[in-house]
């Protein structure tokens, strides 16, 4: 299979690029003793888990289906944490997870008896400090519901807890800023941590970013785990799959209304939702910063503001031309939806051998089934 014969839109995951990230993860583990569990909410395309499994220790999940998927398709350690579990959720999840982490002391109190003897018991704490570019993604934002705040902790809960989880970073590329958060946690919660077996420091640490000082991060994690006598975990999502995947689209029309707009056979609202939610323009591989021809890369959905980006090109774009929207793996394939009844992108993996494998494709029946299966008669 040759990629130019594939029908757009499609995602193409590059095994070599994935392995490059995973090798960094491996080095971080070796240097620090940290364990790494993949955050499935960022990336759950289990067709490539065979590539990832040898490098990581397991998965971390939220909803019961995610937990089941991690247990079934990845194995290793399965962590489960949710902002709110129903009793049914807890019963289902406790049988298949290794660690169950509650978001509040009330959830812990209500459900702990269903977990004891089955899984290691954890509680999420909110450190009150964070590193996040946007308020929407800031776990320490005002009135945050994520984790127990320091002034609300009942110290007695630690007597019967195995571990705690802090998640306070989003795409943090600054190792010193992360170390600052670690120090704040040590100072604020240190006496509680000393009695625990494990501490998870959550996700959002961007240790695969070019130039990131992995050695410095590893040294700080090692000091922290030795100081408090705990096994440390990180829960990377984006760091594992960053810069590994293109969303490949075709230009289907070009219109001009004071600006040239190339309309492509995909939409951010349906296929790359975070472009819209976080208002962060995508990057196009074919673009060139100083190109003379400027286009809005517009989507084919009906939403007025739905566009991938504005980009410059050396040559004018033409109808039928393909564009590669880079870095399209994290928080995309897990959020695909059928808005406007658009064609759903297929999912492929380009293996190191050069072979392109089909992981998934969708058709009209898949769309129809999500809407109703049993008409009223
Ligand atoms: C979102 C999330 C992660 C993964 O975050 P990334 O930024 O993708 O690394 C890990 N842990 C928790 C609790 C999360 O909510």
UniProtKB/TrEMBL annotation:
It catalyses: carboxynorspermidine + H(+) = norspermidine + CO2; carboxyspermidine + H(+) = spermidine + CO2. Homodimer. Its cofactor is pyridoxal 5'-phosphate. Catalyzes the decarboxylation of carboxynorspermidine and carboxyspermidine. The gene is nspC. Signal peptide: none annotated. SUPFAM superfamilies: Alanine racemase C-terminal domain-like, PLP-binding barrel. CDD domains: PLPDE_III_CANSDC. PANTHER family: CARBOXYNORSPERMIDINE_CARBOXYSPERMIDINE DECARBOXYLASE, DIAMINOPIMELATE DECARBOXYLASE. This is Carboxynorspermidine/carboxyspermidine decarboxylase. Keywords: Cytoplasm, Decarboxylase, Lyase, Polyamine biosynthesis, Pyridoxal phosphate, Spermidine biosynthesis. One of its GO terms (molecular function) is lyase activity. Its main location: cytoplasm. It is found in: Cytoplasm. Its EC number is 4.1.1.96. The keyword Cytoplasm applies. It is an enzyme of class 4 (lyase). It comes from Enterovibrio norvegicus. InterPro entries: Ala_racemase/Decarboxylase_C, Nsp_de-COase, PLP-binding_barrel. It comes from the Bacteria. Belongs to the Orn/Lys/Arg decarboxylase class-II family. NspC subfamily.
């Amino acid at each position: 299979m040759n990629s130019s014969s594939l029908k757009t839109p499609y995602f193409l995951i590059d095994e070599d690029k994935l392995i490059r990230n995973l090798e960094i993860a491996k080095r971080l583990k070796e240097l620090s003793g940290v364990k790494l569990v993949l955050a499935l909410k960022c990336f759950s395309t289990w067709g490539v888990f065979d590539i990832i499994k040898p490098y990581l220790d397991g998965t971390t999940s939220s909803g019961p289906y995610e937990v089941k998927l991690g247990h079934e398709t990845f194995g290793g350690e399965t962590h489960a944490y949710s902002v709110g579990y129903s009793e049914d959720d807890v019963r289902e999840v406790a049988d298949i997870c290794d660690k169950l982490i509650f978001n509040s002391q009330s959830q812990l109190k209500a459900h702990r008896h269903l977990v004891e003897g089955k899984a290691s018991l954890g509680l999420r704490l909110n450190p009150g400090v964070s590193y996040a570019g946007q308020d929407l993604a800031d776990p320490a934002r005002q009135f945050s519901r994520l984790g127990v705040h320091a002034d609300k902790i009942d110290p007695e809960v630690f007597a019967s807890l195995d571990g705690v989880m802090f998640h306070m970073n989003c795409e943090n590329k600054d190792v010193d800023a992360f170390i600052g958060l670690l120090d704040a946690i040590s100072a604020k919660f240190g006496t509680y941590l000393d009695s625990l077996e494990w501490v998870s420091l959550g996700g959002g640490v961007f240790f695969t970013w070019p130039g990131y000082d992995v050695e410095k991060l590893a040294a700080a994690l090692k000091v922290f785990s030795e100081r408090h006598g705990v096994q440390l975990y990180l829960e990377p999502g984006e760091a594992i799959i960053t810069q590994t995947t293109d969303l490949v689209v075709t230009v289907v029309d070009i219109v001009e209304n004071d600006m040239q707009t190339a309309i492509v056979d995909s939409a951010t609202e349906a296929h790359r939702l975070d472009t819209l939610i976080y208002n962060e323009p995508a990057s196009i591989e074919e673009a060139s910063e100083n190109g003379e021809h400027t286009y809005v890369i517009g989507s084919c959905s009906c939403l007025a503001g739905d566009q991938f980006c504005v980009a410059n090109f050396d040559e004018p774009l033409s109808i039928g031309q393909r564009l590669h929207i880079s870095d399209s793996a994290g928080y995309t394939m897990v959020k695909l939806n059928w808005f406007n009844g658009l064609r759903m992108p297929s999912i492929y993996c380009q293996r190191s051998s050069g072979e392109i494998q089909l992981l998934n494709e969708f058709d009209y029946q898949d769309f129809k089934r999500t809407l109703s299966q049993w008409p009223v008669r």
